[in-house]
């Protein structure tokens, strides 16, 4: 035991000494107070000196890794501070736990952990070119993921499981990288910020990145699974299966899609991954179709284009659907060859300008005198009548193809701002041809319109050819200048489609996180969802178990007033404010209340007065309260009633004192004693001394019947003049009195709108007799 203890002590001393010998400042040859510029300069010099491709020394690779690792530590202020204060170089190591604390901090030796012994491994130099940093990822990799998919491995220097998947990873990289798949490696210890952005919190992890969307790989790490994982990340309809039945429609779609078409012929029934990756890279420019040469439904297609069945063949079509403009055929089709083949033919001979990006690529801004690019633009229409002229323009462009010329066309209706800038706001009745040269990215162009328009005749072709020849001899031939607006994006998807696609991706991400228990990323979303559900159901439960307020019985008040409970649904929509009470307070006009409720009524307030008799009092008050209930919430309205039996002379005195406008309506000769004013309603403005008059209307029909004339002024058939009704007619009298106020609700609406005629009075007449009563209904 003594010998074993001595051995372990000596071994620990050696390990501590070995760990303390590593100093990134010494490796880079800089002082501890060196600035970032000095550290960067030292790193560049040492990297050039010890790069394994330039230095054949056997120790060059190890020294290059040390230099790179030292620069990674010192270039990051946080890591540099940790090393200066604690001697630690790994972000996973807790602050304050230095390399001398037991065996945990040894970067270049072993330590005791869950797996007892784990031996550190130096990073393979072949992997160093795939290392990703946070800034590089956001500036280069993210935008590039819209052109090719990325396969990213998250690893760590102390990850034992990462060693097991290393052989499979290398085989997969060797297979997929030549096909065009981007490869990346993220060190969990040194790039914690990037790992958090990706949502990777453990090593090893494998991530797929397409169109900026991160997807985790959750299957067994096998080469076939990783290959299928990349293929599943690509959009579904990149390549269309082509047969004898649909190849004509596919090739003719250039009219609508405004893109060339590529057909790949091969013997395998499944679309090769290489072809899918090429289609993904050029999906904005070219449409791709795949033809299975072994399918019996493709014999006519193979015969028409004379396809060799012994090697893969690619045909590229533009406006001519019967003859391809370019062909390649090779047994070992390489990605570089396919990219060059497609990129040289990614525009139609005469494409339609459908967005600003296409305009920028087709007609670039002039940079140098020797690289002038002239754009010959046809402004035409979409109708069938313009097709011959467009076809003649295409024929002219096919014959006069040159590097300095780009031919294109626009639909005037689709690109009105552009056409107005070139045609001086004049609508083109016939197609026009404009030759232009772009001078700046701000839209400035020099241009010249071809005189005579364009109808496709030989004379038009000769005139255009002559002007193009003059332009190449004298660039100043373009004499006009203009500033073009940005083109409308004709191919932009509708907003609802964009929203649905974004929602679909979001749902897929949530499903993936839930399925594979990525709870750290899901916690904010789950917290939001459960909070919303708690608030929603909590509100419902509180409302469900709360007791509705019961109206308490009210005692009759001693003063003279009328209280009537009503159904609030009668005319609630016509009220300017909802009623605050479930009854209407109606006060009787007497000698005591007459002064305060009329003569000295506050400015802006109106008293609505119902005229009734002793016999019609109950029926009319109930109907009156029902009709005016929805208006009782208005603060400036007051409701009263006047008993004509007690104050018989008040109404005739009021009408007699009105202006001549009342006389024109034929009321001047009305007997003061005989007329029946039961059911009349007056809106009295005591301050401004005017009133609006409602005359009762009775038809004997349903009050909602459209046949009831609103301008009828027939007298009531029930006159309360002291003469008792005949025997058996009491029921009819009650119904007639009730219907006198059928139109009062409409009259009240007009009163609130201010459209009723106003009758002025010089002074309010006195009531005369003094009698008071109070009624509650």
Automatic annotation (TrEMBL):
Residues 548-580, 702-735 are annotated as: Disordered. The gene is LOC116067405. Keywords: Autophagy, Glycoprotein, Membrane, Signal, Transmembrane, Transmembrane helix. It comes from Sander lucioperca (Pike-perch). Residues 23-87 form the J domain. The lineage of its organism: Eukaryota, Metazoa, Chordata, Craniata, Vertebrata. One of its GO terms (cellular component) is endoplasmic reticulum membrane. Pfam families: DnaJ (PF00226), Thioredoxin (PF00085). It is a single-pass type IV membrane protein. Residues 549-562 have a biased composition (Basic and acidic residues). It comes from the Eukaryota. It is found in: Endoplasmic reticulum membrane. Plays an important role in regulating the size of autophagosomes during the formation process. The chain crosses the membrane at residues 525-545. Residues 1-18 form the signal peptide. GO terms for biological process: autophagy. This is DnaJ homolog subfamily C member 16.
